[in-house]
Design goal:
Number of strands: 0
Order of helices and strands: HHHHHHHHH
Shape: elongated
Strand content: under 5%
Length: 262
C-alpha cells in the first residue's frame, strides 16, 4: 500500500512540475514576442512550413469532409422532407466545429510533430545549450517565429477548409442528389451569421496557439521527460506524446469555447 501511495505521489509531483514548466515556457515565449529587433524572415519561413505546405492535405481533407456531410445530411433531412436545409447544415457544421478542429488536427499531424522533433533533436545535440552559451535567446530565436506563424496560419487554413468543404457538400447534394441549388445557397445564407464565423475564428486562433505551444514545449524540455528523453527513442516517444496531448487539448478547448460562445 505504501509503494502505491508513493507512486501516486511521485506521478502527481511530476505532473505538477511538468504543468509548471509548460506555463513558464508559454510566459517566456509571449514575453519574447516584444523583444527587438523584429525579424520577419524567420516568421515567413515558418508560415511557409506550417501553412503553405499544409494546403494540400487541408484541401483533400476538406472536400471529403464536406462530401460526407452532404451525404449524411441529405439522408437525414430527406426523412423530414427538408432537403432544402442541406446547405445550412453543411455550412454550420463546418464553420462552427469541423473546420477549426479538423484543420488543427491535420496541422498537428503534419507540422506539429515535425516541430517537436526538430526542437527535440536540437536539445539532444546540445544546439539549444550552444545558443544559450552564445547569449542567443532560444525562445526568441526558435519558438517565437513558430508561435506567430501558427496563430497567423490556422485561421487562413480553416477558411480554406470551410470553403472547400462547402464545395464538397454542394457537389454531393446538388450534383449527385439533385437538391435545388437556390435552396442550398439560400439556406446557407440565411442561417450562417457573423457569430458562427466568429466562433470558428476564435477556435482557430486558440488551436494555433495550443499546437505550437505544446509541440515545441515537449521538444524543448525533452531532457526532463519522466521516462527519459535522450536518444532517437526519446525523440520519437516525446513527439508521440506531443501529438496526442495537443490533439486532446484541441478537442477539450473546442468544447470549452463552444460552451462559452453559444
Amino acid at each position: 500500500m505504501r509503494n502505491v501511495l508513493e507512486k501516486i505521489g511521485l506521478e502527481t509531483l511530476w505532473f505538477l512540475a511538468s504543468a509548471g514548466r509548460m506555463g513558464l515556457f508559454l510566459a517566456r515565449t509571449l514575453s519574447s514576442l516584444f523583444a527587438k529587433p523584429f525579424k520577419i524572415y524567420p516568421v515567413v519561413r515558418q508560415i511557409h512550413f506550417i501553412g503553405a505546405r499544409s494546403v494540400f492535405v487541408i484541401l483533400f481533407t476538406g472536400v471529403f469532409t464536406g462530401m460526407v456531410l452532404g451525404l449524411q445530411g441529405y439522408y437525414s433531412l430527406r426523412k423530414f422532407g427538408s432537403e432544402g436545409f442541406l446547405g445550412s447544415a453543411v455550412a454550420l457544421s463546418l464553420v462552427r466545429e469541423l473546420g477549426p478542429v479538423l484543420t488543427a488536427l491535420m496541422v498537428i499531424g503534419r507540422a506539429g510533430s515535425a516541430m517537436c522533433a526538430e526542437v527535440g533533436i536540437m536539445r539532444n545535440s546540445e544546439q539549444i545549450d550552444a545558443l544559450e552559451c552564445m547569449a542567443v535567446d532560444p525562445y526568441r530565436y526558435l519558438i517565437v517565429p513558430k508561435l506567430l506563424a501558427g496563430i497567423i496560419v490556422l485561421p487562413l487554413l480553416t477558411a480554406i477548409f470551410d470553403v472547400v468543404g462547402i464545395g464538397g457538400g454542394y457537389l454531393v447534394g446538388v450534383g449527385l442528389f439533385g437538391v435545388n441549388e437556390g435552396a442550398f445557397f439560400q439556406g446557407m445564407y440565411a442561417s450562417v451569421v457573423w457569430a458562427d464565423v466568429e466562433m470558428g475564428l476564435v477556435k482557430s486562433l486558440v488551436f494555433g496557439l495550443l499546437l505550437v505551444w505544446i509541440c515545441t514545449c515537449k521538444g524543448f524540455f525533452l531532457h526532463l521527460e519522466h521516462s527519459g528523453g535522450f536518444g532517437a527513442e526519446g525523440v520519437s516517444r516525446t513527439t508521440t506524446d506531443a501529438v496526442v496531448l495537443s490533439s486532446v487539448s484541441v478537442l477539450v478547448w473546442d468544447y470549452l469555447i463552444s460552451a462559452l460562445m453559444l
